[in-house]
Automatic annotation (TrEMBL):
It is found in: Periplasm. It comes from Rhodovulum marinum. GO terms for cellular component: outer membrane-bounded periplasmic space. PANTHER family: PTHR33376, SIALIC ACID-BINDING PERIPLASMIC PROTEIN SIAP. The keyword Ion transport does not apply. This is Tripartite ATP-independent transporter DctP family solute receptor.
């Protein structure tokens, strides 16, 4: 081959390589989970699965610990196309009141119950997401939530009287803790450790995986096992941006979301045992709350949801009914 021919071949190869790179799709997945959290494990599993299936067609890149923004910022960035995936949980009740069904205390019994709710009612949740510009690619979880604080052990709702308790940015969680007598303060997750450390707030409520990975056990005296709310997490995308992805890319991402849910449920169950011990070993005093007392005190929250959310009463009945299914 002549020198001229060789140069032409190299130029053509470089051009094709450049086109291949340009054709690649970068999908940025932002979340608020810290290293060691269930959120981090979930997102990493999803990315590993997706990148294995997608090959050169697309790449999922992960950004944890609020690097790309807090929950509300991530919801906005999804719509702007600055982030392609996020993993919101409680904050979804601020997107649409329908997601507030998962803010109802003790409405979800266990993960099998959640799967039945998903199978029977996912169309309802997807329609609500679509109406607000999002699509739910799949479900994961945040988990069963418990209360930590520096004032006293919480056994019954009255023990929360006057406790300054951080909650996520969701109206129904605020209403719930107001009903219990606490002083709920909505706050971004990334701000909670410092607020606890400095005494701006007395306590917070989260699953063990979030408590331990955020090291709240270093700045909290008491953990009360309430299990008051189970929060799913949503592998969420902008509907308009997701719909523009090639069919094969969307199919692979959907498959990985389903596989990730299985992984997350297994991982979460393991962490519930391991991380409770981590919290105890840090010197936090642990007590079992009187769940019957909390359930009794929760009735007004159910009544309010039924009255204020269109179809709320029917949703409550359906979800509770699925909890008693065999």
């Amino acid at each position: 081959m002549t020198r001229t021919g060789l140069l032409a071949t190299l130029a053509a190869t470089a051009l094709m390589a450049g086109q291949a790179v340009a054709a690649d799709i970068t999908l940025r997945f932002g979340h608020v989970g810290n290293p060691g959290s269930l959120f981090e494990a979930t997102v990493n599993h999803f990315a590993e699965c997706a990148n294995g299936k997608l090959g050169d067609a697309a790449e999922v890149q992960t950004f944890g610990a609020s690097q790309l923004g807090k929950d509300q910022e991530l919801l906005q960035k999804l719509k702007l196309g600055q982030v392609q995936f996020a993993l919101p949980s409680s904050v979804m009740s601020s997107v649409d009141d329908i997601f507030g069904i998962f803010e109802m205390p003790y409405i979800i019994k266990d993960r099998d119950h959640m799967r039945r709710v998903q199978a029977e009612m996912m169309d309802t949740f997807e329609a609500a997401a679509n109406a607000n510009g999002y699509t739910i690619v799949g479900l994961a979880e945040n988990g069963f939530r418990h209360i930590t604080n520096n004032v006293r052990p919480i056994t019954v709702p009255a023990d929360l009287e006057g406790v300054k308790l951080r909650t996520p940015n969701g109206a129904w969680r605020v209403k719930m803790f107001q009903q219990y007598g606490a002083n709920p303060t909505p706050m971004a997750f990334s701000d909670v450790f410092t607020a606890l450390q400095t005494g701006v707030i007395d306590g917070q409520e989260n699953p063990y995986a979030q408590i331990a990975s955020a090291k709240f056990q270093e700045v909290q005296k008491y953990l009360s096992i309430t299990g008051h709310v189970y929060t799913p997490a949503y592998i969420l995308a902008s509907k308009s941006h997701f719909d523009k992805l090639p069919d094969d890319v969307r199919a692979a991402l959907g498959e990985c979301a389903a596989e990730t849910q299985d992984f997350t449920y297994e991982k979460a169950a393991e962490l519930e045992v391991e991380l409770l011990q981590v919290i105890k070993d840090a010197g936090v005093e642990v007590n079992e709350a009187d769940k019957d007392a909390f359930i009794e005190a929760s009735k007004p929250i159910y009544d309010a949801f039924a009255a204020e959310v269109e179809g709320g009463g029917e949703m409550i009945e359906k979800v509770l009914g699925l909890g008693s299914a065999s």
